[in-house]
């Protein structure tokens, strides 16, 4: 939003006009972005996992409040702020000059090193895919802390003196009530411990049998040979009662393309750098997962900027994308798809795809769209507005007719180029669909079925035009 505000000031608008310009440019993208994000996170509110449910509710609320603050506070704040002196003096900000130079240099890379960037991108994708198979699951949360951290030191002490901080339970089912007091069962548990100790995969094991052994030893004056499970069930019962009593007491248990890049390069760069710096701060944490998350996220922000500036121009240069916004913003009246000979037997959706794969030209009132005598290789279909067709002969101009939305002009030039035989002049503000060989080739490659219908319609238009000219000659 700030970038659009500054853009308005650079174009000569005053503060109020610049704020209105910012609001007009940003309203739709901010609203759609917020809506889709809010809907996405709100779906978590229906999750049965409590922590995810709470996360979804809180995030949805936060994003909604952020949207309201953005559209209300920022314009109000800018209204009370003075216009930066750099725009008042009409001088160029030195930082802005350096940023523009960097963006211009970045923009040249996709055109100068297209093959290298493509190969590099494919290599990185392959490297990432290969790395996916080398991922290892680590459930040792202690390793998340640095080696010299206080927690690691204390855990080392627990490993040395007790049974360790990482543990799991093995439950022995005796099948009878109070069987745990049976010396035979306790001796089997002790035997299971000896077996696990022999596997050398665990630091230490501990069970009720260990407590009984220690109690039996102390009851016999601390004699080491008495550190064993007693043979008497009565002694076992006595020791366990004492243990439970003590336990209870202590209770211890992540040229259009160039213009677009120039316009968006600065905010993309600044946003990426700001986010990267923000995430990089997490690298100062003592918690390894936080460190890894912060540094990797910062790296992703910078890679994302490089991809946006290098890979996107190559993709946009090779493929003309059709987006939902194009469908929303395109001014194509419904009756044209029914009345225009160019769109005969095409559905409204198919007609829109043809239009979007061509290009739109705007002409103001009295502007020449086609001039007699000039060379041309494209034809036009009138989308909105009206035009007149005239012919210059012996110093005089003769009007041949008026055309409206859906009519075709200049179709003869599409076949093989040549000199224009008439003038086409806009009678009012007019929008026209420009179709040339490149447009037809894009339609053919992207939508072959639509292309077959379109080529048939163009053939009919040319046939009718030739018939009309033949009748006129006779």
Main pleated sheet: 4 strands, antiparallel
Number of strands: 8
- End-to-end separation in angstroms reads 64 Å
The average pLDDT value, as a whole number, equals 76
Q: What's the number of helices? A: 18
Based on secondary structure, the structural category is: alpha+beta
Strand order of the largest sheet: 1-8-3-6
Order of helices and strands: HHHHHHHHHHHHHHHEEEEEEHEEHH
Percent range for β-strand residues = 5-15%
Rg value: 39 Å
Task: Give the helix level as a range of percent.
Answer: 55-70%
Rough outline: elongated
Uncertain segments of ≥5 residues (pLDDT<50)? 246-254, 320-329
Descriptive report:
The protein has 474 residues and is an alpha+beta fold. 61% of the residues lie in helices and 9% in strands. The protein is built from 18 helices and eight strands. The chain has helices spanning 2-10, 15-42, 50-80, 85-88, 94-112, 114-132, 150-161, 183-199, 208-219, 233-250, 256-280, 288-318, 324-329, 334-339, 348-357, 412-416, 437-446, 448-473; strands spanning 359-363, 368-370, 379-384, 387-393, 396-403, 408-409, 423-426, 430-435. The chain has a four-stranded antiparallel β-sheet with strand order 1-8-3-6. A four-stranded antiparallel β-sheet has the order 2-7-4-5, with no helix packed on it. β4 (387-393) and β5 form a beta hairpin. The longest helix is centred in the first third of the chain and has 31 residues, at 50-80. It is elongated and about 135 Å long. The chain starts with a helix and ends with a helix.
Key attributes of the depicted protein:
four-stranded antiparallel sheet, elongated, 474 residues
């Amino acid at each position: 939003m700030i970038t659009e505000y500054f853009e308005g000031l650079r174009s000569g608008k005053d503060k109020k006009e610049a704020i209105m310009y910012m609001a007009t440019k940003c309203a739709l993208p901010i609203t759609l972005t917020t809506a889709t994000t809010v809907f996405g996170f709100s779906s978590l509110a229906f999750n049965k996992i409590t922590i995810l449910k709470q996360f979804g509710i809180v995030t949805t609320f936060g994003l909604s409040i952020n949207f309201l603050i953005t559209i209300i506070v920022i314009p109000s704040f800018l209204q009370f702020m003075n216009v930066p002196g750099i725009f008042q003096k009409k001088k160029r900000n030195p930082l802005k000059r350096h940023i523009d130079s960097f963006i211009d240099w970045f923009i040249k890379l996709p055109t100068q090193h297209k093959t290298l960037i493509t190969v590099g991108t494919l290599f990185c994708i392959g490297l990432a895919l290969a790395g996916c198979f080398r991922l290892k699951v680590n459930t040792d949360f202690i390793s998340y802390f640095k080696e010299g951290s206080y927690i690691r030191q204390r855990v080392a002490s627990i490993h040395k003196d007790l049974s360790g901080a990482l543990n799991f339970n093995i439950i022995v089912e005796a099948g009878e009530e109070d069987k745990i007091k049976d010396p035979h069962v306790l001796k089997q548990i002790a035997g299971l411990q000896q077996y696990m100790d022999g596997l050398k995969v665990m630091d230490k094991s501990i069970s009720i049998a260990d407590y009984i052994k220690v109690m039996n030893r102390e009851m016999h004056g601390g004699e080491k040979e008495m550190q064993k499970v007693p043979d008497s069930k009565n002694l076992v019962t006595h020791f366990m009662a004492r243990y439970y009593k003590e336990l209870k007491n202590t209770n211890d248990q992540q040229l259009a393309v160039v213009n677009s890049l120039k316009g968006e390069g600065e905010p993309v760069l600044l946003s990426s750098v700001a986010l990267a710096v923000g995430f990089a701060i997490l690298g100062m944490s003592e918690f390894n997962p936080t460190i890894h998350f912060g540094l990797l996220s910062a790296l992703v922000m910078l890679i994302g900027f490089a991809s946006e500036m290098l890979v996107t121009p190559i993709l946009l240069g090779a493929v003309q994308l059709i987006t939902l916004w194009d469908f929303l913003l395109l001014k194509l009246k419904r009756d044209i798809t029914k009345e225009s000979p160019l769109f005969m037997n095409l559905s409204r959706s198919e007609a829109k795809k043809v239009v979007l794969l061509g290009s739109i030209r705007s002409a103001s009132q009295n502007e020449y769209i086609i001039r007699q005598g000039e060379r041309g290789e494209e034809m036009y279909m009138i989308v909105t507005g009206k035009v007149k067709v005239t012919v210059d002969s012996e110093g005089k101009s003769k009007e041949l007719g008026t055309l409206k939305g859906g009519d075709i002009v200049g179709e003869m030039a599409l076949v093989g180029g040549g000199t224009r035989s008439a003038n086409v002049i806009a009678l009012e503000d007019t929008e026209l669909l420009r179709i040339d060989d490149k447009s037809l080739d894009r339609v053919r490659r992207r939508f072959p079925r639509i292309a077959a219908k379109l080529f048939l319609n163009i053939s009919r238009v040319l046939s009718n035009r030739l018939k009309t000219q033949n009748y006129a000659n006779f």
